[in-house]
Design goal:
Largest sheet: 2 strands, antiparallel
Order of helices and strands: HHHHEEHEHHHHHHEHH
Number of helices: 13
Bound molecules: protoporphyrin IX containing FE
CATH architecture of the domain at 164-366: Up-down Bundle
Radius of gyration: 36 Å
Strand content: under 5%
Structural class: mainly alpha
Number of strands: 4
């Protein structure tokens, strides 16, 4: 006779083995189990190589496929890859794409017809980065060429020493706050987009990572500041940027670049007006609107991946074009034209400068139609008088 506990262990072992075998046979012989109730499991190790010969195999749903080839989830993954949205109990307002792993197929301008994420990547890497970067380099080289070949535009009339107020302190404050915000955005934007080509090899991954992280945040906050100052600039300079007499003539003569003397203009020439309407107004508005979408500060908008992809592409195109425009503007407003920067820096230009570059404006000032001094100058303080009683 054996020990009673040994007998008990042997009995338990036999019972367990019997249970296990009954489970396995239930899996391997579904026909036997088909009639019984309860959850039925399928043996995913049972490969059925001929299942694909069944009619309609390719069109099977996942449930149908599971019957003929347990564990084969290809129909489900094909749907996921094609961008089909599944069910999610999360609220659409908070998680608009919770049921959707891979975006549906689209063809963005310049991309193949493919998943939206990949289509966006193709537009960015094949178009925005190479062509946008090339445009900026071409503009810089062209301006350098003009500067070294022709030099800055000079004033030929001798200086009179008499000054005209070209920009009031308010106009200058509006302009420079806008220009400073723009430069912050342009520098950070260029490093975010192109820094890995020219900065990363120089400063290394660690520093570049921290720098772009900091610049990305600077970019996000400078954007709204730029937008506000842009509105102020637009309203401030609007009245002198409408088309006026002489503008057409100036355009037809290429602003004097097609030989001869520059045709007379009003306070701003059509070149400045083109920057104002094309850059400040049109591109500026598109760039700001798309930037606001990416900053997620437009109320009521549903922020999906597609929303961000489209906003990014619009932002990329408009910001590269506006940078090209303002490079030319900043060139003419600094080293490209003698006397222009002084006007925006200190507010005043010499009468000779006004007569040579903006003759109609100068004539209007001489005729008394526009005051030569528009801002109120600070009066010297009057010494206090003793009070008479
Ligand atoms: C660092 C870059 C910049 C420099 C050096 C610069 C320089 C100047 C100068 C010197 C003027 C006076 C030109 C004249 O007397 O006719 C001017 C005018 C003006 N600038 Fe800038 N600027 C810069 C950036 C910007 C930016 C980013 C904007 C707007 C987005 C802007 C908008 C204007 C406007 C609206 C005018 C008045 C001319 C007009 O309305 O047509 N500037 N700038």
């Amino acid at each position: 006779m054996g020990h009673p506990s040994r007998l008990l262990r042997a009995l338990l072992l036999t019972a367990c083995t019997a249970l296990l075998w009954s489970g396995v046979s239930a899996q391997t012989a579904p026909s036997v189990a088909a009639g019984s109730s309860g959850i039925q499991s399928a043996n995913i190790f049972e490969v059925k190589p001929d299942a694909n010969e069944a009619p309609g195999y390719a069109a099977q749903t996942n449930a149908e496929r599971a019957k003929v080839q347990p564990g084969n989830n290809a129909p489900m993954w094909r749907q996921v890859g094609a961008g089909v949205t599944g069910y999610s109990s999360l609220p659409k307002s908070q998680a608009p794409e919770a049921g959707n792993l891979i975006q549906p197929f689209v063809q963005y301008p310049g991309s193949r017809l493919t998943n939206a994420g990949e289509a966006w990547r193709e537009v960015r890497n094949n178009w925005l980065i190479p062509y946008g970067g090339s445009l900026l380099v071409i503009v810089i080289l062209a301006l350098a060429f003009v500067y070294f070949a022709k030099g800055p535009m000079k004033t030929t009339l001798p200086a009179t020493g008499r000054k005209i107020e070209r920009f009031t302190p308010f106009e200058r404050a509006a302009h420079w706050s806008n220009a400073i915000a723009f430069v912050a955005l342009a520098v950070s934007g260029v490093i975010i987009a192109y820094g890995k080509f020219f900065l990363l090899p120089v400063i290394g991954l660690t520093l570049f990572g921290w720098l772009t992280y900091a610049l990305k945040n600077l970019h996000n906050f400078a954007g709204p500041l730029f937008a506000v100052s842009m509105v102020v600039v637009f309203v401030t300079f609007l009245k002198d940027n409408w088309p006026e007499k002489g503008d057409l003539q100036w355009v037809l003569q290429g602003g004097g670049m097609l030989g001869g003397h520059a045709p007379p203009t009003n306070r701003f020439n059509p070149g400045s007006k083109a920057i104002f309407w094309g850059g400040v107004f049109f591109l500026g508005l598109i760039m700001i609107a798309s930037g606001f979408v990416m900053d997620k500060i437009v109320p009521g908008l549903i922020y999906e991946r597609g929303t961000m992809q489209i906003a990014h592409m619009v932002h990329g195109v408009s910001s590269v074009l506006i940078m090209a425009m303002f490079l030319a503007h900043a060139y003419l407003g600094s080293i490209g034209m003698d006397g222009a920067y002084e006007g925006m820096r200190h507010g005043y230009v010499d009468e000779a400068w006004a007569q040579e570059h903006h003759e109609y404006w100068y004539d209007d000032i001489k005729a008394g139609k526009i005051p030569a001094q528009r801002s109120v100058q600070a009066q010297p303080s009057v010494p206090s008088q003793p009070v008479q009683t």
